[in-house]
Amino acid sequence: MLETSARLLRLLSLLQAHREWTGPDLADRLGVTPRTVRRDVDRLRELGYPVAASPGTGGGYRLGAGAELPPLLLDDDEAVAVAVGLRTAAGQGIEGIGETSVRALAKLEQVLPDRLRRRVGALNAFTVPMLRGPQLSAVDPAVLTELAHLCRDTELLRFEYRGHEGSVTRRTVEPHRLVCTERRWYLVAWDVDRADWRTFRVDRVTPKPPHGPRFAPRTPPSDDLAAYVSRGVSTRAYASHAVVRLLVPLAEAAARISPSAGTLEPDGEEACLLRTGAANLDVMVIHVMVMGFEFEVLEPAELVDVIMTSRDRLSRAVERSARTRSSSEAL
């Protein structure tokens, strides 16, 4: 009986960890026959777990959505990670997540063993979060969940999108992945009408069901989607582009420059390349200067001329200020 109960828990854990399993795969994982798997699935159903089965060679078992959430099976490290994540979830750019996290954490801590509760308490008591920059946008968690499900199930998404100027357009896309930064969430998707990959700010997305049908997944625009989104929001979205060599190691630059401000790549041990964008070259000068690093311009050459013009303007301002101060002191 104990062996059967342990196997049922293991089966439930496998069903929770994977969207769908074939009977032979489950049998192999559990070290039993497919017939035993079928009997164990029937026992889970008797206990109230909604395990769905699809026939045929491409069929399998999956844990469906039921009237109540089944208990999650977490090992020690997973339980601690979930608790700490819930503790730090408030203010992370998801609207209303703070109160929801507190309720979920209260339920989790009720069932945590003392040894894990002490670990979680120590981590939270002696950890101070530091987030760079303000949280500019909040995302409805229901929208975030809906987009994640459509990405997972490869179903067409229809939505209204509010542009930077406030204009609203209707879009139909094949959603691929959600990418989050310190300040925003983005959806990477294939735009059906424009026949190209696009990146959308999730806080500007309003889903308009019904969605679907399903589509065949495409090859993503990049193996590194985080870098792809970073280039899009920091460079491609602007009229003027530049490549600047920063005379500091990559790690030092990355500690100050967020992915939304530009993309970085190493250029030897003591320097790195910054690829960035701005509305125009005058703004680009300010953008690069406020980073606080010594640098040299690689491209475009016109940026050097704009820097020289800014230098001359600043020099004249310093001279005028010095003359005014001297005149005031002479009085």
Structure description:
The protein is an alpha+beta fold. Helices cover 44% and strands 19% of the residues. The protein has helices at residues 2-17, 23-30, 34-46, 76-87, 97-111, 114-125, 141-153, 225-236, 250-254, 281-289, 302-330, and strands spanning 51-53, 61-63, 157-162, 168-180, 185-191, 196-201, 205-207, 240-246, 263-266, 272-278, 295-299. A 5-stranded antiparallel sheet has the order 6-5-4-3-7. The protein has a 4-stranded antiparallel sheet with strand order 9-10-8-11. It is elongated and about 95 Å long.
The structural class is alpha+beta
Describe the largest sheet. 5 strands, antiparallel
Helix content: 40-55%
Secondary structure tally: strands: 11
Cα radius of gyration in angstroms: 27 Å
**Residue-averaged pLDDT:** 81
Order of adjacent strands in the largest pleated sheet = 6-5-4-3-7
Shape: elongated
Number of helices: 11
N-to-C SSE string, H for helix and E for strand: HHHEEHHHHEEEEEHEHEEHEH
Tell me the fraction of residues in β-strands, as a range: 15-25%
Which regions contain 5 or more consecutive residues with pLDDT less than 50?
130-136
**Termini distance?**
100 Å
